[in-house]
Design brief:
With 323 residues, the chain is mainly alpha-helical. It has a single domain (2-320), classed as Up-down Bundle (A middle domain of Talin 1). It is 80% helix and 4% strand. It is built from 12 helices and 6 strands. Strands 1-6 form a two-stranded antiparallel ribbon. It is globular, with a radius of gyration of 19 Å. The protein starts with a helix and ends with a helix.
């Protein structure tokens, strides 16, 4: 158990340092190309924090476990929105650039519609549907990057040229890649050894699944959001969460479905119906509506949204013990 504690501590250090380097590299790229933080968060940062899930889902699909991407995608989106972004909004509410936020939000709900058609109408995720998901991902990346270059962030123009050129482009890319790698390794060490420690202390497996394992898959997003807040780049964290949610639906699931199509899995039931259809998918859509629609209408994120989302996530976790 002593080794597990030491590795847990190492994982925590790697997460913190990796988060620092990752955000520094991302914000450096934003300054260099005069891109809004939310655009960088919704593309580059989201890819980095979602890559571990892509690899896990792809490996699972090749091993005949493609269906696990279904639950992972839904659970990660609920966690990303109702926990991670909620922390950011509760701690640092403020104005947002609705022009740069509209496209990621539109793509999320379009992707969610595809997911709902597969789950409620078809009852299965087919290979053609997986290819459509990957095509949506490609279109989203192209349009978001084009939008970023067409609408540069004017705030960056006021920064000193010397500050923008403090690091070379290569160094910023190195910080981004190495930071992402440290976050991924740190998250693995934290989850694996945290689970061992919890088991040694006699913590029930259901509690472990709802804490270390469930939160572990979203640790990269959580670390990036908290680091962004600490460094004064809250929009980067929110963009990361929205982008990661899109990637969970169309990239992570798209890769898995394309490699190994599957029927909608049935786990727990609620009122005699698959609980994912009654609770999980509706909640996934609802928390994103609660995060994004009021923000787009009022042009700001409010503290009440963050507090409400945190309450919803706490209730959702508590409800899992009843199922």
């Amino acid at each position: 158990m002593l080794i597990a504690i030491l590795l847990f501590a190492v994982g925590l250090v790697l997460l913190i340092k990796g988060g620092d380097w990752f955000v520094d590299g991302a914000t450096g790229l934003a300054r260099r190309f005069k891109l809004p933080d939310i655009i960088v968060g919704a593309t580059v940062v989201s890819i980095g924090t979602t890559l571990p899930e892509v690899m896990v889902s792809a490996t699972g699909a090749l091993n005949g476990q493609g269906a696990m991407a279904y639950g992972n995608a839904i659970g990660s989106i609920i966690c990303n929105t109702a926990l991670i972004s909620a922390i950011s909004v509760a701690v640092n509410p403020g104005k947002i650039n609705t022009q740069t936020m509209k496209m990621p939000v539109l793509f999320f709900f379009s992707s969610a519609a595809i997911y709902c058609v597969a789950a409620y109408v078809l009852g299965e995720f087919t290979r053609p549907l997986g290819i459509i998901m990957l095509a949506v991902f490609a279109v989203y990346m192209f349009l978001t990057i084009r939008q970023g270059f067409k609408n540069p962030d004017q705030a960056h123009e006021d920064e000193e040229e010397s500050e923008i050129k403090q690091r070379s482009l290569l160094m910023e890319l190195v910080l981004l890649v190495v930071g992402a790698a440290l976050i991924a390794v740190g998250a693995d060490l934290l989850v694996d050894n945290g689970t061992i420690i919890a088991q040694e202390l006699g913590v029930p497996e259901t509690v472990i699944a709802l804490t270390f394992v469930a939160l572990g898959t979203s640790l990269p997003e959580l670390v990036t959001t908290i680091t962004s807040l600490r460094k004064g780049h809250a929009s980067l964290g929110i963009g990361n969460v929205i982008g990661a949610n899109i990637f969970n639906l169309v990239l992570v699931s798209g890769v898995s479905v394309t490699l190994a199509p599957f029927e909608v899995p049935v786990g727990n039931t609620l009122f005699g119906i698959n609980s994912s259809l009654v609770l999980d998918i509706p909640l996934m859509v609802f928390v994103m509506v609660l995060l994004t629609i009021p923000a787009l209408l009022s042009k700001k994120l409010s503290r009440w949204q963050g507090i409400t989302l945190l309450g919803i996530y706490a209730a959702f976790c508590a409800f899992q013990f009843v199922l």
